Structures are given as C-alpha cells and as structure tokens.
Amino acid sequence: QVQLVESGGGLVQAGGSLRLSCAASGSIFSVNAMAWYRQAPGKQRELVASRITGGSTVYADSVKGRFTISRDNAKNTVYLQMNSLKPEDTAVYFCNAVFQWGTIWGQGTQVTVSS
C-alpha cells in the first residue's frame, strides 16, 4: 500500500520561504488528486492547495499568490513551495492523496513562522 511521508517543515521568520515535500512509497501515477492541508492548534484541518491529475490546481484564498503546489511523477513526490510566510501560516501540514480505492494521509510536518 502507498504511504506518504512529509518533510521540509521547520522554523522560519515571517517573509521567509519553505518547500515541503511529500514522498510516496509507491507510484502516484494512478492518483486522482493530491493536496496539502494544514491544522493549527485549536482549529479544524483546512485545505491549503490541491492538484488533480491533468494539472488543475486549487488554492485557499489565504495562500493564493504565495504558495505553489507541484508534482513530480518520476520521483513520486508532491511539493508545496511556500513564500512570503506569515505567522498565521503556522500549523502542521499534511499531505493527502486520493486514489480510486481510497484516500491516504501522511503523518504531517510542523511549520512555525515567527514574527
């Protein structure tokens, strides 16, 4: 079964950048969509960005123009490039993959943005 492992989180100052990676243990060729979600303390998990097979992307209004989701099928990896980070972007970021047979999640990676 495919597993997802996120990496790239850390502590960054406001205005800085981070690139998150989500590596799949198996092929993501047949995936229908992949997405990044985040969950801040005391808040519900929310969609940050998603990319469906074919290339269409969706972004949360709060990250439009700052974050970019991309996918490398050869590396079975999805990325989230985060620029102009703000303290309100602080959260645990989760990767998600939707297949015809179900949905899987990674374990999450912490992103902390200091003011």
Can you describe this structure?
The protein is built from no helices and 11 strands. It is mostly beta strands. The strands form 2 sheets. Strands 2, 4, 5, 6, 9, 10 and 11 form a 7-stranded mixed sheet that branches. It has a 4-stranded antiparallel sheet with strand order 1-3-8-7, with no helix packed on it. The chain is globular, with a radius of gyration of 13 Å. The mean pLDDT is 94.
Distance between the termini: 40 Å
How helical, in percent, are the residues?
Answer: under 10%
Residue ranges: pLDDT <50 for 5 or more in a row? none
- The shape, in one word, is globular
What oligomeric state is this? single chain
Q: What fraction strand? A: over 45%
**Helix/sheet category:** mainly beta
Order of helices and strands: EEEEEEEEEEE
Round the mean pLDDT to the nearest integer and report it. Answer: 94
Q: Count the E strands.
A: 11
Number of helices: 0
Largest sheet: 7 strands, mixed
Taking Cα atoms only, what radius of gyration do you get, to the nearest Å? 13 Å
